Amino acid sequence: MLADSHCHLNYKGLVEEQQAVLARARARGVTAMLNIATRESEWDDVLATAEREPDVWATVGIHPHEADQHPHVDTQRLVARAEHPRVVGVGESGLDYYYDHSDRARQQASFRAHIAAAREAGVPIVVHTRDAEEDTAAILRDELGKGAFTGVIHCFTGTGAFADVALDLGFYISLSGIVTFKSARDLQETAKRLPLERLLIETDAPFLAPVPHRGKPGEPAFVADTASFLATLRGDELEELHEVTARNFHTLFSKTATARG
To answer: Which residues contact 152 (CB under 8 A, 6 or more apart)?
Structure first.
């Protein structure tokens, strides 16, 4: 059992040979993949893949890079699409102050709309945050004061302090192939102490291929390589890491329990 908690199966680099990509993932024990949307124009294609493949699920959302181009995507628009049984989460959404491709106030408004949608639809939010830890934490705390919701900090590369904040807020933390990079010493130290019951693993494919696949397009099969690295790093039994992180995936994205098949 392995779950890739975040991939982009409809992106260039994967979509051209999607069936082969899925077959390679299954051959390495990947039993669940979450196909993530980043702009509204992707929603139908992302969902179509999830409808066709019983081990693939979908999200609907607007990446913070795209927030300026999607002022019309509000909470109700997201909730309406999240009613589909194969849509198990909202996102990815959040804040990206590293690139600032969209106005920060617009990013924040979009992030709050996504949180409200996740709360109303009863599904998790998939959070992207880069160089925006303080504002991300502040918005999550503020929104939790309005009503409960849960989610995951995807492709976690933040500080240990931010990991603690996310855990305290009830969030899961998902690690990508970045944790295998030699330059990721601080992230590796944080990864060692993350509670196994809150840990997810992802590829963010076709990006961020882990060691030993650097330089290649990422794909869901490579989640097995990141899992192997993490088991050694943390001192976990590999089989247990596989099983627990897959169980965590289905616990967080609880609609997958009824959406299979």
So the answer is: 5, 124, 125, 126, 127, 171, 172, 173, 174, 200, 252
